[in-house]
Amino acid sequence: MIESMSDRPDILYSRSSALYTFLNPVSYLKARNNSLFLRFDGIMLDGQLLALAVRLFYGKRLRRRSFDMTSLADGLFRHARDNGETICLVGGKEDEAERTACLLKQRYSGIRIAGCWSGYFGSAGDRVRVRDAILKLQPDYVIAGMGSVLQEEFLVELKDSGYGGIGITCGAFISQTGRGSLDYYPPIVDRLHLRAAYRFLNERHTRLRYVKALALFPAVFMADRLRNVVRN
């Protein structure tokens, strides 16, 4: 696991070319033995449970950072608007990506959304088409939400193909926004750190993965920590 840079709220726009992603207990189970994640310049802790595990087993206090409006997204969109930078969105269904782009333009007047596409590629040709369109546009930011590990694969492929901007994964942000509003979590849910519980209740497709993570993550994380201790 790459050490999180979660104490740098400006990390997503402080460099000219980089890839960033986020880990939570669900995606940790997929990322732990996947060398693809070593290609990222920063991995941040998305979720209080993972932050707690890092504090308990590594002795490091790292703040939770997520790409949503309760954390890093608002700052990035404001920064992009104020500096005339361009953004491409890839994620969700076609109408969800388009609605997200519209909502961003409404809230951040003057923000430059260079393009938006569904993250559900019907074929390899669709994936190449979106990749090539982004390479031609060369936006300052590509925000990709296809779920782990597909979103990480797409950003690494994009960079390897010549993209020179900042790529950021966003998980379900585009889908959630496209189905409702930019502010997905009610304020009380955010204050009480009940975001995962809120998703569990509101998004049926997430329930199995959350149950699996709760059952497996603590033991797997502890075993990984013990292996690191033995190796060192």
Describe this structure in words.
This protein is α/β, with parallel strands linked by helices and 232 residues long. Helix content is 48%, strand content 13%. The chain has one domain (11-231): AF0625-like (Rossmann fold), CATH 3.40.50. Mean pLDDT is 89; it is low at 1-6. Strands 2-1-6-5-3-4 form a six-stranded parallel beta sheet, sandwiched between helices. Strand 3 (86-91), helix 4 and strand 4 form a beta-alpha-beta unit. The protein has helices spanning 25-31, 48-58, 73-82, 94-107, 124-137, 150-160, 173-179, 187-191, 195-202, 207-231; strands at 18-23, 42-45, 86-91, 112-117, 141-145, 166-169. The chain is globular, with a radius of gyration of 17 Å. The chain has ten helices and six strands; from the N terminus they run βαβααβαβαβαβαααα.
**How many helix segments?**
10
Derived from helix and strand composition plus strand pairing, the structural class reads alpha/beta
Poorly predicted regions are 1-6
| End-to-end gap | 15 Å
CATH class membership = Alpha Beta
CATH homologous superfamily title = AF0625-like
**How many individual β-strands?**
6
Biggest sheet strand order reads 2-1-6-5-3-4
CATH fold-level name:
Rossmann fold
Count of structural domains: 1
Helix content: 40-55%
Radius of gyration: 17 Å
Portion of residues in beta strands equals: 5-15%
For the sheet with most strands, the description reads:
6 strands, parallel
Mean of the pLDDT scores?
Answer: 89
